[in-house]
Design goal:
The chain is α/β, with parallel strands linked by helices.
Length: 415
Amino acid sequence: MGLNDTPVSERIQIGFFGCTNAGKSSLINTVTGQNVSVVSDKKGTTTDPVLKTMELGDLGPVAVIDTPGLDDDTDIGELRVKRSNEIFARTDIAVIVVDVQDTSDRTKDFVNGFIKRCEDAGKPFVIAANKSETMTDEAGEVFSNAIPVSAFEKKGLNELKEAIITAGKDVKKKKEERLMVSDIIKSGDTVVLVIPIDESAPKGRLILPQQQVIRDVLEAGGNAVCIKDTELKEFFDKRRSWCDPGVVNVTKPALVVTDSQVFREVSEIVPEHIPLTSFSIIMARYKGTLAPQVSGAKVIDTLKDGDTVLVAEGCTHHRHCEDIGTVKLPRLLMKYTGKNINVETSSGHGYPDDLSKYKLILHCGGCMLNEKEMQSRMEYAEERNVPITNYGIAIAYMNGILKRSIAPLPEFESE
């Protein structure tokens, strides 16, 4: 993936929801101009969410997601509805699709219930009255606040797109206001990025947080210097003036950002007067979850023998013998606490429904999850009184360098 590509997690997520056979799949196929979803009159054809990326006017890059019907009462309907609910958690804008031929109380109750759900979640929504070519006066009254569309006759699509764009204006604005490091550096500053090259790094490309921070530094007018952890000591040894806090007429790095796996080693090399943080901490800031995750790390000191900790990853990948989530982090946790702790794992968009058994959740940086889904996971844990932190914050805490690693961030200046 290039620096100009937009990953799915960075796109505005538009979820299409509705009852079975409301025409969600047909409408998405028409809106996107591609046969993204299988279309059939048979109930429950859409068995899993289907995603398509596209550009949508002023919103720019978006991801359009087709979901199974929320009233699916087939044999595996419960699982399908669960998948739709998971999509709702990550959706930025909801499109509620209704069939104008169905004006039953059941459909009215569904629409009203889903509107309330969106309002409670602070999620903008648009109602699309599909199959409008069959619209009756009664249906016109029932769905008076909906946009008439016809996937069959390809009518009302521009109006629907414009309504989605309007609904998403605040969403886009908030996304553009998110911060990584651009507010901590100024034009001309040098930022050193420490990037290990190991088995977990896909050959030929950098992982997403590294790409994003490089892009952010460049857009702020800074200079991004990338270096492997194994070459960092020599790099600093050759720049002795950087290491002397008394030398003032030398342009020292404004910031060093490291991969969490080598946090301790890097902190021993980088002088105390040079600001240091990690990609994980920056990602938590970017997703709007940093403060509660910093608080969550302190719970590590309270863990006891027999406690269970969940290690949650937002993506799936091939695990190797020194995998950070399943090997390195649990090993560090056991060593730091001296306790016999049970560790369970989850990966991808799957997330346990029941968190009651967990004393702590150690989450990855969430680079493959959009901020809505990451914040939803945080809220879900908070409602159940389960503290949550992320890999980099936990590693910094257990190595005694958390205070140093959040010090460069303005929101922690008073601490």
